[in-house]
Amino acid sequence: MKTVVTAALLSAAIFTGCRAGAQDKPKDEAQKPAAAAAADDQKTFYALGVFLSQRVTSFAMTPEELEQVKKGLADGVTGKTGDFQVETYMPKLQELSQKRAAAVAQVEKEKAKAFEEAAAKETGATKTASGLVFKSLTAGTGASPVPTDVVKVHYKGTLTNGQEFDSSYTRNAPAEFPLNGVIPCWTEGVGKMKVGEKAKLVCPSSIAYGDGGRPPKIPGGATLVFEVELLEIKAKPEAKPAGEVKPNK
Prior knowledge:
Elements: H1 2-23, H2 27-30, H3 34-54, H4 63-78, H5 90-120, E1 125-127, E2 133-138, E3 150-159, E4 164-167, H6 168-171, E5 175-178, H7 184-190, E6 198-203, E7 224-234
Antiparallel strand pairs: 1-2, 2-6, 3-4, 3-5, 3-7, 6-7
């Protein structure tokens, strides 16, 4: 299954990076007291456990199911699986992953309905045929971008509970991208804006990241809320005429 394989590969990469980093540690790091080093190692392995857990949240496991996963992990690491053929269960694991992910996404979508309805009723808000709820917060001037434009924006993204998952303000670095290269909600929403305008976009999962989401920060089926500020519409690169040949110098 892709989720399990990805987690395994990434965890292997973590260990590879740790080994490489260990060889380059400065002397003062190497001379840490043994107790402090041991405690740090424990936190590192705990971090590995949290990292792996974030890759399987879509299974929405019960406590009993989690115990089986823990047993499988322990037996696999210690070589106690015997003649158990994990490959036999891969099709079933894939089926279970898809079924559980769809159920989790449906719960998220049901939870978001009331939020979307309330957002659409806010003064100045409009709801489009796609489900986007658009509300201008600060007026802009000039032209609006078309999908083929490159735009420069500042933005903040949150879940419906207010939890922030991304922000160019936090990074202190505006983002630039072709407007037709992002989620449909942005292509449509930013396309309604003028330079200097700030707006709120409420994006149902159908025009955001769908049932798959972007774990661990964005659950499958999640409705997203963006505050976007359109800073600039960047000039498109000039297209060269077909068959143009540069003269030799």
